[in-house]
Amino acid sequence: MMILRCIGMRIWCSHAPGTSGSLARRSHQALCVYARAQNGLGRAAQRAWRPVRVGQAVAFLMGPALLSLGGHVVYCQLDLNNNANLFLEPKKKLHAEPQFNWREFWKLLRPQLWALLAASLLAFGAAILNIQIPLVLGELVNVVSRYTREYTGRYLQDMQKPVMKLLSFYALQGLLTSGYIVLLSRVGERVAARMRKTLFKSLLRQDVAFFDAKKTGMLVNRLTSDVQEFKSSFKQVVAQGLRSVTQIAGCFISLYLISPRLTGLLVVVMPTLVGGGALIGSLLRRLSRHAQEQVAKATGVADEALGNVRTVRAFAMEDREEELYSIEVDKSCQMNEVLGMGIAVFQGLSNVFLNCIVLGTIFTGGSLMAKNKLSAGDLMSFLVAAQTVQRSMASISVLFGQVVRGLSAGARVFEFIMLEPQVFLHGGKKIPFHSLVGQVSFQNVTFSYPTRPGDEVLKNFSLTLPPFKTVAIVGQSGGGKSTVAALLERFYDPNQGAVFLDGVDIRMLDPSWLRGQAIGFISQEPVLFGTTIMENIRFGKPGASDEEVYAAAEQANADGFIRSFPEGYSTVVGERGVTLSGGQKQRVAIARALIKNPRILILDEATSALDAESEQVVQAALDRAATGRTVLVIAHRLSTIMGADLIVVLSQGRVVEAGTHSALLNKGGFYAELIRRQAKELK
Ligand SMILES: Nc1ncnc2c1ncn2[C@@H]1O[C@H](COP(=O)(O)OP(=O)(O)OP(=O)(O)O)[C@@H](O)[C@H]1O
């Protein structure tokens, strides 16, 4: 049995634990493959690991084979290393276009159903008035035509009734229209707010691997412009659409009451208009999606440059970033221009078409009048009603563009709302604090990052961290040290092997509990939030009292410098903590990790960015923090690792040496060489 994974258009596979035997040996059996597509293969396939029959393994091994995954055709071929490579049916482009998810949209809309219903009723009321208005206008014209030759005193009297009727209809129609627009605006705002919250919640729950592959700018864009686009389209389309559709329906009834024959003529040409509109609409939708993707790409470039402005400044890369941004913006501008042209041509054509309908109506209506089958008032009523239909249809044609934009923006939002992470945030076992010992062990872990499948960062890696002891991992850059920490935090799951905490596979444990309570993590460049120091420390334990914050800061050697600031713990640290020095930031981060009193502490090169003086202060804080905890130290500097109970040397994802500082020095191997090189650099 194998585990298949779908990364983008490509699916790769690795052997599941205990099934590393060659596939060839099983060639006589029917093979059952568990497959789970990570994205794009449709919701059913994304949901869970599902068994997929591959047919006879012989066919599977002989050459390209077909299997069905989530209802889609997938090609399968073995490479020389017996790895199965699976490709999606090329013609189907399954990953290319996110689809608008009506079921999810319904969930967002459901709470607003009453308001929507009330708005529809008001719009319906306005539509009923639309049936009446042309008829009364016809009445008015008939009165006027009675007095064209001779004006008498009865004129005003005869006019009074239809005029009063019309005025009250107009007033009532205005009232009803405002009413439903207010209601629809409320519905739009609330749906958009819910959409934003749902998307943000979904994004925050995605796997770390998801963020490895996606740009922050693009994600932020979905939260901001895409939701905004969807909201304005929704409001405009529903408000105007409802009005136009009800007006068209109402006017058609009055048209029918006035002249069934003329109305029949209109009905014949209508389907052509609608069919053509739908066809051009789908073309515009594709254009709009590409244009929006390009805007997101440009935002991504700007976001990266502005977010890392210090690096840009330090390398004097302002001009290059400006050029990159301007290339992307120009592309998006061109795409939007093409889209604008498409919409304009569409609108122009529909206007010509609609005007021709009016012309045809006058032509045919005139001939009916000549045959005495229609009065002047009737033709007037018919024209007014036909004009209203024309106006409403024209606004519907404008709405097509908006519908196109709204649906593609919505599809992009739903794409991430629907995405389910592989590692869920909650669910699973929690070890009670008093029985948590803190023994960690990695057993035969093999791992490659999802963005680089096949490139194994850890190979058959085993390591035990005894409780209350400090274990240091050293080794060359890129050797996989930080990856060990990432696996312990369960940012990723191993491809093979497992990580255990107190003998329990961490995949069985509640990830939120594991990261939030059991493990404290301090990295080389801790990121603080742009709020007060107090809130930053409290981030480690929401709801902690002020006293707990002070105690954690004291433990982290941070209390002194914090109190020396004029605003003490209420000092705002600026975005990402830019207003603090490296050492100060690091100590606040230590306090943030310590406040949750974790049983295990991971220090990922926590002092390597500091100068010697700051390092001493921070190291003292770390030494104090390490007491009574299991500590995993990832470090380059000798000073940080010398005191560790066990030092492990990692090279290309494998443990090549392990022992205490003196034992490893005496051994004269990799570690001794590392130390020798470091000592040379210091000289
Ligand atoms: N998120 C990621 N996605 C894909 N590959 C990654 C990712 N993070 C690290 N890698 C790769 O994994 C390998 C090990 O990286 P890791 O950060 O664990 O090394 P390290 O020993 O901690 O290095 P250093 O001492 O330089 O920090 C490297 O080849 C790196 O390029």
UniProtKB/TrEMBL annotation:
InterPro entries: AAA+_ATPase (IPR003593), ABC1_TM_dom (IPR011527), ABC1_TM_sf (IPR036640), ABC_transporter-like_ATP-bd (IPR003439), ABC_transporter-like_CS (IPR017871), P-loop_NTPase (IPR027417), Type_1_exporter (IPR039421). Its main location: mitochondrion. Residues 440-677 form the ABC transporter domain. It comes from the Eukaryota. Coiled coil: none annotated. GO terms for molecular function: ABC-type oligopeptide transporter activity; ATP binding; ATP hydrolysis activity. CDD domains: ABC_6TM_ABCB8_like, ABC_MTABC3_MDL1_MDL2. The chain crosses the membrane at residues 113-133, 167-187, 241-258, 264-284. GO terms for biological process: oligopeptide export from mitochondrion; potassium ion transport. The keyword Kinase does not apply. It is found in: Mitochondrion inner membrane. Keywords: ATP-binding, Ion transport, Membrane, Mitochondrion, Mitochondrion inner membrane, Nucleotide-binding, Potassium, Potassium transport, Transit peptide, Transmembrane, Transmembrane helix, Transport. SMART domains: AAA. It is a multi-pass membrane protein. GO terms for cellular component: mitochondrial inner membrane. Residues 117-405 form the ABC transmembrane type-1 domain. SUPFAM superfamilies: ABC transporter transmembrane region, P-loop containing nucleoside triphosphate hydrolases. Belongs to the ABC transporter superfamily. ABCB family. Multidrug resistance exporter (TC 3.A.1.201) subfamily. This is Mitochondrial potassium channel ATP-binding subunit. It comes from Microcaecilia unicolor.
